[in-house]
């Protein structure tokens, strides 16, 4: 209930008033049933702008640490995250991670929408970075369609008045659903997981027009922190030169995707 209150009383009206966003392709989101919305990630604002601009409820996993804040601000943040239905994602491994993944899968089993950022972190320079294969594992395990989403111009920049962070006419482009059900039996086949991930990232790149960097965003941030220069894009695209894998024939054992690869 509080989700819809926050959305229609606060977030959606404020986003439209302050940012004047535009959205295209919203009809590509099914009116009912589970699906995974997969997006690029260039700003902290992505996580509230996208849910505010679509009709259906969208749930993003959030770092488990955010649900255990201390002090007044920490308790308010925990209350807010729980109120809007966000899920704690434990990435420490073991039973805690498995429990977190069950919560993520529960969103899809209820027939709801789940949002993921395969890059695993915000882009350090606005370019699109290599996707982690955890998204492909989740897609195959859940057996639901993937909806590619492109977030454009969502960077938070100082406003003209009081230097309050704002967005300047951000855009959301939503692509057609992608179906990977033919590879449901692939299990943990690395070639299949990499191919699916690259196909999804290619679809996102076509929506955003971003340059692509064939390295993980976390690695790029570590290089920047160490004073290293980031590589040029040089016209790359995800999975360049990779062939379509053959359809699987064996039936694998069910496997829970590593939580470290599936991060909001």
Continuous helix count: 7
Number of domains: 1
Beta-strand content bin: 5-15%
N-to-C order of helices and strands: HEEHEEHEHEEHEEEEHEH
Distance between the termini: 23 Å
Secondary structure category: alpha/beta
Q: Helical residue percent?
A: 25-40%
Name the poorly predicted regions.
92-98
Question: What sort of overall outline do the alpha carbons produce when their principal axes are compared?
Answer: globular
Q: Describe the biggest sheet?
A: 6 strands, mixed
Rounded average pLDDT: 85
The spatial strand order of the largest sheet comes to: 1-11-8-2-6-3
Describe the structure.
Mean pLDDT is 85; it is low at 92-98. This protein is 35% helix and 15% strand. The protein is globular. The protein has helices at residues 2-19, 46-53, 71-83, 94-109, 134-142, 190-208, 217-225, and strands at residues 22-24, 35-39, 58-59, 61-63, 87-89, 113-116, 128-129, 146-152, 157-158, 165-166, 171-174, 212-213. The protein has a 6-stranded mixed sheet with strand order 1-11-8-2-6-3, with helices on both faces. It has one domain (2-57, 112-252). It has 264 residues and is an alpha/beta fold.
């Amino acid at each position: 209930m509080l989700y819809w209150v926050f959305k229609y009383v606060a977030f959606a009206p404020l986003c439209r008033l302050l940012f004047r966003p535009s959205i295209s392709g919203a009809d590509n989101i099914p009116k009912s049933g589970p699906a995974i919305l997969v997006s690029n990630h260039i700003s902290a604002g992505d996580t509230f702008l996208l849910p505010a601009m679509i009709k259906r409820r969208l749930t993003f996993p959030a770092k488990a640490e955010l649900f255990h804040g201390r002090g007044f601000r920490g308790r308010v943040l925990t209350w807010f995250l729980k109120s809007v239905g966000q899920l704690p994602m434990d990435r420490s491994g073991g039973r805690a991670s498995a429990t977190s993944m069950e919560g993520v899968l529960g969103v899809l089993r209820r027939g709801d929408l789940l949002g993921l950022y395969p890059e695993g972190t915000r882009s350090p320079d606005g370019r699109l970075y290599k996707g982690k294969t955890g998204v492909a594992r989740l897609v195959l395990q859940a057996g639901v369609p993937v909806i590619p989403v492109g977030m454009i111009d969502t960077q938070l920049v100082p406003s003209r008045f009081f230097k309050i962070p704002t967005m300047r006419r951000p855009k959301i482009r939503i692509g057609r659903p992608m179906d990977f059900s033919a590879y449901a039996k692939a299990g943990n086949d690395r070639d299949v997981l990499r191919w699916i991930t690259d196909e999804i990232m290619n679809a996102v790149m076509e929506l955003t027009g971003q340059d692509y960097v064939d390295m993980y965003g976390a690695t790029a941030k570590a290089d920047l922190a160490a004073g290293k220069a980031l590589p040029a894009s040089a016209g790359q695209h995800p999975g360049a030169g990779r062939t379509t894998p053959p359809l699987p024939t064996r039936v694998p054992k069910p496997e829970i995707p590593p939580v470290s690869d599936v991060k909001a």
